[in-house]
Design goal:
This protein has helices spanning 3-14, 21-24, 53-62, 71-79, 87-104, 129-141, 146-157, 171-176, 178-198, 202-215, 220-232, 236-254, 260-271, 315-326, 342-359, and strands at residues 32-33, 39-42, 45-48, 69-70, 112-115, 118-121, 330-332, 338-340. The chain has 367 residues and is mainly α. It folds into 3 domains: 3-157, Arc Repressor Mutant, subunit A (Orthogonal Bundle); 177-326, Alpha Horseshoe (Serine Threonine Protein Phosphatase 5, Tetratricopeptide repeat); 327-367, no CATH class. Helix 1 crosses helix 6 (129-141) and helix 12 (236-254) packs antiparallel against helix 13 (260-271). The longest helix is centred in the middle third of the chain and has 21 residues, at 178-198. It is elongated, with a radius of gyration of 28 Å.
Length: 367
């Protein structure tokens, strides 16, 4: 099946159906599963391959479906940097072992083709979950509404089942491939959470954001979404607490401060800004071929207005406020107002007395 046909079929199947439609349909029954441990489906049963050289070879081929994978790269995947002297014939033997494994599960050995320079395996969205995942992401870009986009993205993410390539013992794949595929998944998750927030489902999405942010402590977008969701559900103190958690992690573990987006978000929370249109400075990063902003319609999110009755703080004042709260000298009450700790009250009183004494009897105290 050509790639365009795969996308069309995925779009049609996604339609207005539930998120698991593709997974449960007879039409969508991939033979090869690699978004997790590498597995082969056989008559309704899913078999995870044991770690082996043929399993490494299969993973390398499936990561580049319908493309020639060089013999040199395959040798590095299968044997690492300590390749056998007769690596070429050893690779041929490994391919034969993989074809024998295919026969055990009713897969034609001719699916693996010997081509000039290496080998190639044929696959489409109906036979390989990786292709289906990417086709679904493209289909989400073409979605006619945020709700439909969200359903398609959740369908795509449901294809991931466990740690990526967990049963593949290949340093080169873990070093060069796993981070890239993991990033594709994280980007899709960001899109899902952006859409949920744009649709006003802040309270519902919190149950997902808590564990995701903690599982990826260096991934700042998840923390920004968590802080936003907490603030928009009236939990401003918790939002600031979560900001401090990621700030401490980044400083302690990586020696860096939070990025500009997180810092702007913290300032917005301290100011008590209304973030229902999205956090300041975040412009929709996901724009599909139809030109629509795929952050759920939040196309100009830098223009946020403070809620009625809440004064805006200057950036300097907000930073001072954060410092005082962090030092324990100010405490935010449930009504959103700040209460002074006794220590700060004593310091403030002493400062006022010194100011009065310094002004002298003939000088107005307001000078």
């Amino acid at each position: 099946m050509h790639k365009r046909q795969s996308v069309d079929r995925v779009q049609e199947a996604s339609g207005d159906l539930g998120p698991n439609t593709l997974l449960d349909s007879d039409e969508f029954s991939p033979k090869f599963l690699m978004l997790g441990p590498v597995r082969i489906a056989d008559d309704g049963n899913v078999i995870a391959l044991q770690p082996s050289k043929p399993a490494n070879l299969l993973a390398a081929l499936l990561l580049h479906p319908n493309s020639t994978v060089s013999a040199e790269f395959l040798q590095r995947v299968v044997w690492g940097e300590e390749r056998p002297v007769s690596a070429r014939s050893a690779l041929h033997t490994c391919v034969q072992r993989l074809r024998q494994l295919f026969a055990k599960y009713g897969i034609a050995g001719t699916l693996i083709e010997a081509v000039p320079g290496g080998y190639r395996i044929g696959a489409d969205a109906g036979s390989l979950d990786l292709i289906a995942f990417r086709d679904l992401l493209r289909a989400a870009d073409q979605a006619s509404s945020p709700e439909r986009e969200l359903r398609i993205l959740r369908t795509a993410l449901a294809l991931w089942q466990g740690p990526l390539l967990a049963n593949i013992h290949s340093d080169i794949l873990r070093r060069e491939v796993v981070p890239r595929l993991t990033e594709e998944r994280l980007r899709a998750m960001e899109r899902v959470f952006d859409l949920e927030l744009a649709l006003g489902r802040c309270r519902q999405v919190l149950s997902e954001l808590w564990p995701v942010a903690r599982s990826h402590p260096a991934h700042e977008p998840f923390w920004a979404q968590l802080v936003e969701a907490l603030h928009r559900t009236g939990r401003r103190a918790e939002a600031l607490c979560e900001y401090r958690v990621v700030k401490e992690y980044l400083r302690t573990e990586l020696g860096v401060d939070p990025g500009p987006a997180l810092q702007r978000l913290e300032l917005a929370v301290l100011r008590g800004e209304d973030l229902s249109a999205g956090p300041p400075g975040r412009h929709g990063p996901h724009s599909g071929a139809n030109g629509r902003d795929h952050s759920g319609g939040r196309s100009d999110l830098s223009r946020t207005a403070p809620p009625t009755g809440k004064p805006l703080l200057s950036r300097g004042a907000a930073q001072v406020l954060e410092t005082l709260v962090g030092a324990g000298l100010l405490e935010e009450g449930p009504d959103g107002h700040y209460r002074m700790h006794d220590s700060l009250r004593i310091l403030a009183r002493g400062a006022m007395e010194l100011r009065t004494e310094a002004s002298g009897p003939d000088m107005p105290s307001g000078t």
